[in-house]
Amino acid sequence: MSTEAGSRVLVVDDDPALADVVGRYLRRDGFEVSFATDGIDGLKQALATLPDLVVLDLMLPGMDGLEVCRRLRQVAPIPIVMLTALGEESDRIAGLEIGADDYVTKPFSPRELAARVRAVLRRSAGGVSATSVRTLSGGGVEIDVVGHQARRHGAEVQLTAKEFDLLVHFLANPGRAFRREELLEEVWGWRFGDVSTVTVHVRRLREKIEEDPSEPKYLLTVRGVGYRFEA
Predict the structure, then answer these.
(1) Tens of pLDDT along 195-208?
(2) Angle 110-124/161-172 helices, nearest 10 degrees?
(3) Which of 5, 83, 204, 224 has the most CB atoms at less than 10 Å from its CB?
(4) Could you write out the DSSP letters of every residue in 93-135?
């Protein structure tokens, strides 16, 4: 994938006025931007061109954003920023569970969206890390921080950018209990936000690194606090 400057962003939204404003802000920041106005075309373009990031609306004609995200996640770990309407909390959480890396709630500031896009791209390129060490390991998981790869018992584990950063953070701080608010600030860079985002990502990580996600041995819940990783 490209680094932040010159990265290719696909915007999938059926509102031409909104897409135009978003596109102008992203181009002003140096991104190459392409557009799709429905879910089917958006998925087709994403699979054909493999952009560096997809800005994906939830409510789309032809195929909704959740289905586009789900199908894209089966093929490639392309970072996805979802656009959701106010009050669509269940859909937003569903998007995170499927594999979206971030979300922005409508109505939103195009400047905020551009900042979120930059942040997700930095994380997906390994620009945000809790450690300068090249490799980290624990619980049968080994991470190549610089190469942005994760393996469990020798087999590669497909992680989204946010899942990767969260796991790096835990492995770099074994045995330390983190509040959800701390993780939101230290991994996502948000001083304010929905802590259910952290909960969803921890659940997804457990599904990928634990033998039995319902009875985790490594990524543990600390009652009344948050989470800790026992290496």
Answers:
(1) 888 999 999 999 99
(2) 60
(3) 83
(4) HHHHHHT-SEEEEES--HHHHHHHHHHHHHHHTT---S-S-SE
**What's the CA gap between 56 and 84, in Å, rounded?**
9
- Which pair of tokens denotes residue 63? 């195929």
Length reported for the chain: 231
Alpha helices in the chain (DSSP H): 16-28, 39-49, 65-75, 89-98, 110-124, 161-172, 180-183, 196-209
pLDDT confidence of residue 130? 42
Prediction pTM value? 0.62
DSSP state, residue 179: E
Q: What share of the chain is helix, strand, coil (3-state, %, to 5)?
A: 40, 20, 35
In angstroms, what is the C-alpha Rg of the chain? 17
Tens-place pLDDT, residues 93-151: 777 777 788 888 888 888 888 888 988 887 776 544 444 457 888 989 999 887 888 99
Query: What mean pLDDT is reported for the chain?
Result: 86
Nearest-angstrom CA–CA distance, 131 and 204: 22
